[in-house]
Specification:
Layout lengths: L1 E5 L3 H12 L15 E3 L5 E5 L5 H6 L5 E5 H7 L4 E6 L5 E8 L4 H6 L4 E5 L2 H11 L3 E5 L6 H5 L4 E6 L3 H5 L2 E10 L1 E6 H6 L1 H17 L1
Parallel strand pairs: 1-3, 1-4, 7-8, 7-9
Antiparallel strand pairs: 2-3, 4-11, 5-11, 6-9, 6-10
The structure holds phosphoribosyl ATP and magnesium ion (MG).
Length: 213
């Protein structure tokens, strides 16, 4: 049995064409079923639905043989025990620093002020500001980062941005582009040895679909 860990929503949706290229069709719609293990048209391939942030954990410890996860999530988790053969070029966005309209970020940086920064991405944020030489107090949040500068919880946020509409709707502006993000295929290293033939077949089919795109 091959177990693929996916999160519901954009990653699941954008993975379907890649699975199709590998001849795999998921038999249930995750938005409609309450099942967490989904069968596919291939009796030896199944999909498990997990929280996006749990995908690397499932694959690292062998709860799944492979999974698809955003680079943001992967960097925060660390790549321990994970073989990362492909950038799938899906669920693309960027990770940025944003502040309230009217907050003079450039001046704060220039003056060497201590910035409070709210984020789900504490590791990425710490590394970015350390490299830049900016002193920060990091505040860990689990969602709705956009609220932090509006309520006075923090001066800035580090968050994912795609269209920028969410920032705009909340009167926030992007002041730093930290890095581009896309989703990665991650594979359990022991699985890769034990189930080499079926896993290679899936990896190669995904790689082939990427070349077509
Ligand atoms: O939503 P939930 O709390 O269950 O989990 P999650 O947010 O970790 O999962 P999910 O499915 O929302 O995101 C999975 C992955 O998709 C992320 O880890 C990213 O790699 C990738 N991705 C791509 C995004 C976006 N684009 C994106 N726009 N993840 C989140 N967003 C957020 C963004 O932070 C903003 O708040 O969507 C909102 C809308 O963005 P704008 O700029 O288009 O308005
Ligand atoms: Mg989300």
């Amino acid at each position: 049995m091959i177990t693929l860990a996916l999160s519901k929503g954009r990653i699941f949706e954008e993975t379907l064409p890649l699975l199709k290229a590998a001849g795999i069709q998921v038999l249930d719609d995750p938005e409609k079923t309450r099942k967490l293990i989904l069968a596919t048209n291939q009796p030896d391939v199944r999909v498990v639905l997990v929280r996006a942030t749990d995908v690397p954990t499932y694959v690292q410890y062998g709860g799944a043989d492979l999974g698809i996860t955003g680079l943001d999530t992967l960097l925060e988790h660390g790549g321990d025990g994970l073989y990362q053969p492909l950038d799938l070029q899906i669920a693309k966005c960027r990770i940025s620093v944003a502040v309230r309209e009217g907050f003079d970020y450039a001046a704060a940086v220039r003056q060497g002020s201590r910035l409070s920064v709210a984020t789900k991405y504490v590791g990425i944020a710490r590394e970015f500001f350390a490299t830049k030489g900016v002193h920060v107090d990091l505040i860990k949040l689990y969602g709705s980062m956009e609220l932090a500068p509006l309520t006075g919880l923090a001066d800035a946020i580090v968050d994912l941005v795609s269209t920028g509409n969410t920032l705009k709707a909340n009167h926030l502006v992007e002041v730093e582009h930290i890095m581009d993000i896309s989703s990665r295929l991650v594979v359990n290293q022991a699985s890769l040895k034990l189930k080499q033939v079926p896993l290679r077949r899936i990896i190669d089919a995904f790689a082939g679909a990427l070349e077509q795109a």
